[in-house]
Specification:
- It is globular and about 35 Å long.
- 6% of the residues lie in helices and 46% in strands.
- By secondary structure, it is mainly beta.
- It has one domain.
Length: 93
């Protein structure tokens, strides 16, 4: 499935989508129900999300302990393109 053809399904379904840096042998993380997880960060908690428009929002903590969402990329087709133009391939598991 191309992600932009079914972004609502990507955000809501109980389907895991692995995120692969181009040229890497293992995924860097995954999306599940629109939330983004990385195995080495977050202690099992999501560290980002993709909204229904395909914007990737990374969770940031402020020095006072409050949290904010930082727009840091976009899901386009089967790729996540970060704001620094680094591309990741998204594959349904």
């Amino acid at each position: 499935m191309k992600i932009n053809q079914g972004i609502q399904n990507f955000v809501k379904n109980n389907v895991k989508y692995s995120v692969w840096a181009i040229g890497e042998a293992t995924p860097t993380g995954y999306f599940l129900n629109g939330k983004y997880y990385e195995p080495n960060y977050g202690n099992g908690q999501p560290i980002g999300e993709v909204d229904s428009g395909g914007t990737f929002l990374y969770y940031m903590k402020n020095s006072d302990g409050s949290a904010k969402k930082l727009g840091s990329g976009k899901v386009v087709g089967d790729k996540l393109i970060r704001s620094d133009n680094t591309e990741f391939v998204i594959k349904m598991d």
